[in-house]
C-alpha cells in the first residue's frame, strides 16, 4: 500500500473557518474544511495535485459536466483515535474503485499515488477538523468531473480531480424505513450502475421523493426487468438475515461493489456466520417476514455505515422487522468501527495510519 | 403558443467576438455567442431570467452538479430566411420536454414563458450570429443544473437555467456507420432514458468509443434485457425502411421522444407512407438486409437532422445499405428543412417567427 513520496505543493488559507463550526451539531456534508486537493487533467495527462484553500470553481457554461453528466466520486471517512493518530479504512479500495468508475465513464484514470499522497497530505493539514464527537466523522469526498468545453456529446478533453472534506454527523438518524420499488429502476444490465457515476444518483431522487412522501426514508431497488429481486438502496448495499443466514445480492454491472459490503462479508466469514451471496426474491422476503424467519435487514455503506432497517414496505403493506437479540447489524458495526477508530486489532489489514 | 410579454433585463457585452469567427469553417458546438440567458432557482422559485454577457460560472466544489449528475438539457436550432427573418421549429415541444425531463430528475420545472420569452429575446439580440452557410445553423442549448451545495445525495435547493448559442457546422459529416450493441446498454425499464438527462450521455461515451475504435461512428442501443430489439442511437432516433414501410421503435421510458422523430411520423402520414411504430428485432433487420428488402436506415435528431446510415455492424459482420432512389431520408430532410428555413408552406404549424 505504500506509495512513493510526492512533493505536494500547499497554498495555505489565510484564515481558518474552524472556529465557526459547532462540532456538536453537525449535519451530513454541508460544512467544508479550509483546504482541498485540486488536480487538473490537460493535454492528455494529470498534472501534479496541489493543496489550495477551499474555493469556488469557475467553468465555462459549455463545460461538459453541465450537459453530459460525466462525473464520478468516492465516499470515505477519516478517524482519529485517543492518541490523535489519524486512520483511513481500506483507502486503496476507494482509489481502485474510482478508477473502475473512471473507465466506464470514459474519464482518464487518476494515478494511485496522486490520489493517496494528496489525500494523506490534506488529512495531515486538516487534522483538527476530524470530529471526535460520537457518531460524527470526517467525510472525505474525492471526485472527478469533465471540465472541458463543448456541446458535442463526446468525452471532455479536460477534467478536474478534487478531494474535499466535510466534518459530518450521521447520514441517517435512527432506524430506516424502506420501500421496495417495482416501477422505477436504478440501473440497466450493461449500464453504469456499478460505477459511482453522478447520474446514478440524480435518477433516484424523484422515485425516492415519492417514497419519502409516503413516509419511507429510502428505496430498495429491484432489477429493471422483472422487479422480482432486490438489488441495492442507492446509497447502501442491502443485507438480510433469515434465521441465522446472512444474505446479500451478488454484485453485478447494476450493483455497486460496496467496501462496507465487502468488509461485512469478510467479518461474517471470520465469525462463522453462514453467508449466501445470491439473488434475493421479494417474495422470499415477504414469506420470511410472515413466518418469522426474517430476523434483520440493514443497509451498509460508507456514509451510512450500517443502518438497521425497521420496516420495509411493498405494495402498500408494511412489514416490521423484529428486535433481534445479538443482532448481526450491531456486531458488524462494532467490529468495523473498532477497526476504524483503532480500538481493536486489525486482523484484516484494513486500517492505514496517515 | 403566444406567451405574455415579459420585460427581460439585458446587460450587453462591451465588445463582440463575432469578428473572430470563421463562419465558413464551423465545427459543432465549440464557438459561443456574446450573450446568454441566466435564470436562477432560489428559495423555492425561479427568478426572472436575464440576458448577460456570456461568462464563466462560479460554483462551490460541493455543488450537486459535480456529484450527483442532476442536470437536463435541450437541443434546438434557429434558422434565418432570405428576408433575415428568424424562425424556430416546434420550440414549445422542447420547452415541454425540458419540463418532462425536469420532473423525472427532481428539478423544478421552468415556467414556459420564462423559457420562450428569454429565448426569443436572446435570438433577437444575437441575430447576426445565425449562420447562413448551407449546412450550418445556430445551435441552441437550454439547460438546467443543480447549483445548490452539499454532499448529501438528495435534490439540490438551487438550480441554474441557462440558454447558450453555438453557431455550428454539421454534427456528422457524410453518411454514418453504426454498430448494433448487445453488451452495453443505454437505459433501464423504469429508468431515465426518456429524459434528456446528463448522465444518459456520459454512460454512452465508453461503449461508443469502443465502437469508434472498430471504425463505426455511433452505437445503436438495444433493450437491456434481451438485446434483441433496437432502441435509439443516443443522439438520434432510428428509422428503418423495409420495402416501402417506414419503421421506428415506439417511445418508452427508455427512449427519447424525439421532436424530429415526431415530425417525420407526421410527414410520412401526410405523404401516405406506410408507418409501423413497433419493436424492431435485430434478426428482422439482418434478414431484410440479406433478402434485399432493407432499403434505408437513418437517424433523426435536432443536432444531426436526418443522417443516412451507410452500414450497420452486428457481431463482427457489416451490412451495407443500398443506394435507394427516392429515398425517404432525403424526402424528410427536404420537407423539414424547407419548413425550418421558411422555404415552403408550413402545413403543420411547426414554425415560429421570432
TrEMBL record, chains A, B:
Top-level EC class as recorded in UniProt: transferase
One Pfam family matching this protein: Aminotran_4
Keywords: Amino-acid biosynthesis, Aminotransferase, Branched-chain amino acid biosynthesis, Pyridoxal phosphate, Transferase
PROSITE patterns xrefs: AA_TRANSFER_CLASS_4
Pathway in which this enzyme or protein is active: Amino-acid biosynthesis; L-valine biosynthesis; L-valine from pyruvate: step 4/4; Amino-acid biosynthesis; L-leucine biosynthesis; L-leucine from 3-methyl-2-oxobutanoate: step 4/4; Amino-acid biosynthesis; L-isoleucine biosynthesis; L-isoleucine from 2-oxobutanoate: step 4/4
InterPro entries hit by this protein: Aminotrans_IV, Aminotrans_IV_CS, Aminotransferase-like, B_amino_transII, BCAT-like_C, BCAT-like_N, BCAT_family
Coiled-coil features, chain-numbered ranges: none
An MF annotation (GO) of this entry: branched-chain-amino-acid transaminase activity
Reaction(s) the record says it catalyses: L-isoleucine + 2-oxoglutarate = (S)-3-methyl-2-oxopentanoate + L-glutamate; L-valine + 2-oxoglutarate = 3-methyl-2-oxobutanoate + L-glutamate; L-leucine + 2-oxoglutarate = 4-methyl-2-oxopentanoate + L-glutamate
Cofactor: pyridoxal 5'-phosphate
EC code: 2.6.1.42
PANTHER family hit by this protein: BRANCHED-CHAIN-AMINO-ACID AMINOTRANSFERASE, SUBGROUP IIII AMINOTRANSFERASE
Family classification: Belongs to the class-IV pyridoxal-phosphate-dependent aminotransferase family.
Protein task: Acts on leucine, isoleucine and valine.
Name of the featured protein: Branched-chain-amino-acid aminotransferase
Lineage: Bacteria, Pseudomonadati, Bacteroidota, Flavobacteriia, Flavobacteriales
Amino acid at each position: 500500500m505504500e506509495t512513493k513520496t510526492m512533493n505536494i505543493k500547499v497554498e495555505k488559507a489565510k484564515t481558518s473557518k474552524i472556529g465557526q463550526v459547532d462540532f456538536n451539531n453537525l449535519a451530513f456534508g454541508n460544512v467544508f474544511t479550509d483546504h482541498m486537493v485540486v488536480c487538473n487533467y490537460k493535454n492528455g495527462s494529470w498534472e501534479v495535485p496541489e493543496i489550495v484553500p477551499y474555493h469556488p470553481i469557475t467553468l465555462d457554461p459549455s463545460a461538459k459536466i453541465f450537459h453530459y453528466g460525466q462525473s464520478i466520486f468516492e465516499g470515505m471517512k477519516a478517524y482519529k483515535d485517543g492518541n490523535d493518530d489519524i486512520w483511513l479504512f481500506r483507502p486503496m479500495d476507494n482509489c481502485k474503485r474510482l478508477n473502475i468508475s473512471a473507465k466506464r465513464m470514459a474519464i482518464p484514470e487518476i494515478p494511485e499515488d496522486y490520489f493517496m499522497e494528496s489525500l494523506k497530505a490534506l488529512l495531515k493539514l486538516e487534522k483538527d477538523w476530524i470530529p471526535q464527537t460520537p457518531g460524527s466523522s470526517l467525510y472525505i469526498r474525492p471526485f472527478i468531473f469533465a471540465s472541458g468545453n463543448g456541446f458535442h456529446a463526446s468525452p471532455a478533453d479536460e477534467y478536474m480531480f478534487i478531494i474535499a472534506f466535510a466534518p459530518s454527523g450521521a447520514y441517517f438518524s435512527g432506524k430506516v424505513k424502506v420501500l421496495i420499488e417495482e416501477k422505477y429502476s436504478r440501473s440497466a444490465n450493461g449500464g453504469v450502475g456499478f460505477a459511482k457515476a453522478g447520474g446514478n444518483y440524480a435518477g433516484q431522487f424523484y422515485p425516492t421523493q415519492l417514497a419519502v412522501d409516503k413516509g419511507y426514508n429510502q428505496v430498495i431497488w429491484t432489477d429493471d426487468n422483472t422487479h422480482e429481486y432486490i438489488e441495492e438502496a442507492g446509497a447502501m448495499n442491502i443485507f438480510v438475515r433469515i434465521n441465522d443466514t446472512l444474505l446479500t445480492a451478488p454484485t453485478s454491472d447494476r450493483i455497486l461493489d460496496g467496501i462496507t459490503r465487502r468488509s461485512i462479508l469478510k467479518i461474517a466469514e471470520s465469525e462463522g456466520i453462514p453467508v449466501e451471496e445470491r439473488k434475493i426474491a421479494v417474495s422470499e422476503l415477504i414469506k420470511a417476514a410472515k413466518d418469522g424467519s426474517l430476523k434483520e435487514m440493514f443497509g451498509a455503506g460508507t456514509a451510512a455505515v450500517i443502518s438497521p432497517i425497521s420496516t420495509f414496505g411493498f405494495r402498500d403493506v408494511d412489514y416490521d422487522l423484529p428486535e433481534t437479540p445479538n443482532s448481526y447489524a450491531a456486531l458488524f458495526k462494532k467490529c468495523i468501527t473498532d477497526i476504524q477508530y483503532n480500538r481493536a486489532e486489525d486482523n484484516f489489514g484494513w486500517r492505514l495510519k496517515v
